[in-house]
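Recap slide: Exodeoxyribonuclease 7 small subunit, sequence and predicted structure.
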Amino acid sequence: MATEKFETALKKLEEIVRRLEGGSLSLDESLKAFEEGVRHASFCSKKLDEAERRVEVLLKRKDGSFSREPFQPDE
């Protein structure tokens, strides 16, 4: 999964959720799908955390120049 892209992992996670919600999997199949889903969810979460750390916002100063500031999400 190290070379996998976020979008690919997210699509796989969405498919796993659809299969689990469908209710047609056996218990063993459900557990395997759940384990795979947890791996994809963890990967996606890590990628989102990395992206958030990289986001910078340009702020205009009073003198008209710009400065780069780390992204601070509103919580």
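The first strand starts at residue 56 and ends at 60.
Strands lie at 56-60, 66-70.
(End of recap.)
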